[in-house]
Amino acid sequence: MKISIIALILQGIPEQIAVVTLAYVIAGMPFAWKKIVSMGIILALTSYLLRFFPILFGLHTVIMLVLLFILLFFGGKSNFYAGLVASLLGFLALIISETVCLSLLMPLFHVSAEMLNTDVGLRILITLPQVFVLFIASLIILKIKKGVKR
After folding, report:
1. Is residue 93 helix, strand or coil?
2. CA dihedral 13, 19, 20, 23 (to 10 degrees)
3. Taking the model in full, what pTM does it have?
4. CA-CA distances (angstroms) from residue 121 to 9, 106, 110, 124?
């Protein structure tokens, strides 16, 4: 499914920044917001561009996962294992949060899949809670890790 520029800016980029933030926390990497934001933008733009190609369903996610690992390993200087685990868990968390949020919100607001595909504004609004869930998960994991280190 192709996405509009407005959806890329208001939903795709924040979503990918949230995924990178979560991956940083999971990998135990020190926060570098400039890197996190730039990695999120790179991931979102890659996702946007991949949607123009006729690739198999699911391959887009695998490419994004590998790209996140590469960005964490080379750009964020994570170790190999931590970067791999953080990439896998970051995208798993995205898939779970998206599934749970859409499963709860679509019936609550009487939104169909067709409505999400045709109304960009509605799609942005109904998918933003998953972004907040990822950021909140990052904060919770960070607090737990800090509590364990004491």
Report:
1. helix
2. 180
3. 0.94
4. 12, 14, 15, 5
